[in-house]
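BACKBONE GEOMETRY TOKENS
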Amino acid sequence: MVETVAGELHAVMEEVRGRTFRLVEHLDETQLNTVLSPIMSPLSWDLGHVAAYEDLWLNHRLAGRELLREDLAALYDAFETPRQVRGDLKFLRGEELREYMATVRERALEAPVEDGELHELVIRHELQHTETMLQAMALGGIVPPDFPGPAPVAGTGLELVEVPEGPFEMGASGEGFAYDNERPRHTASTARYTIGRTPVTNGAWRQFIADGGYARRELWSDAGWAWREREGITGHATNGPDDAPVVHISHFEAEAFARAHDARLPSEAEWEKAAVSGALDGIGEVWEWTASRFAGYPGFVAHPYKEYSEVFFGDTYRVLRGSSVATHPRVASKRFRNWDLPERRQLFAGVRIAR
């Protein structure tokens, strides 16, 4: 049984690594090593980071072996080296990077599997970083030529469906892999509300712009208006078709759009309840901002390390739900919680309104 699980996990690891390399095969070394945006890492740093993470968790902490390159531990620690300094560091490049990734993988395939949880952690970590890399590529205008945008939806995002009041079970069950912030499963309750059947589309967003949405102070929070003025935000480049969900929207913009339609953003409890009940269409095209701040569920316990979730709890980060076209299906889940700063536009994020 253990051998079967090990074989399956090893096959997935190889499949995921092949996908990672295919996502960057259209790029040259300069593009891989360049800082494409001040808020993003060079793509080569991300590649080295996923290998260092694999070496740490599978080869060092699980198998009890020394790190392949102890001198790289701080370089590829996301907290030791924040994004704004990574472009100035001597991260691995070119053939040295590929050799490091390959050698880490050879060692990792020899690590004991046990319950497979740490292997799954490593697999999903790489998949999450490939989405981050696609964000950087989108900012730099160098996404893979076959990368799709959000698919059309049947609606504008202004058509609402009703969800009845009452309790539901929120969060991941005790079975299978889940991140610490998805647990423990608990009973949550909502009042009756209505929520957009689909995410808001480009067509609806263009109308918001035409109606002066970016100039109407009453639509914006104080923080959102300050961001708009500081960054010189006067609109949004909605390049997709009218019937596709608008993408690369900040939380501040999402709030303003909702207010322009006498609506608001859903809480993440409202979002999850509606999604699990099957009331929502268009899930998985764009991440969807919620009104909720990122915090632990009642009874939260950090696992396997507090830096995955706990250090981000508080008033600063907002929760997103639903996944996007850049999210691998292995990661996408109606229970999965994403989070980012409310001013961020690099995410493949849109908006679903509620009342």
Notes: Strands lie at 160-163, 166-170, 186-190, 193-196, 287-293, 318-321, 338-340, 349-350.
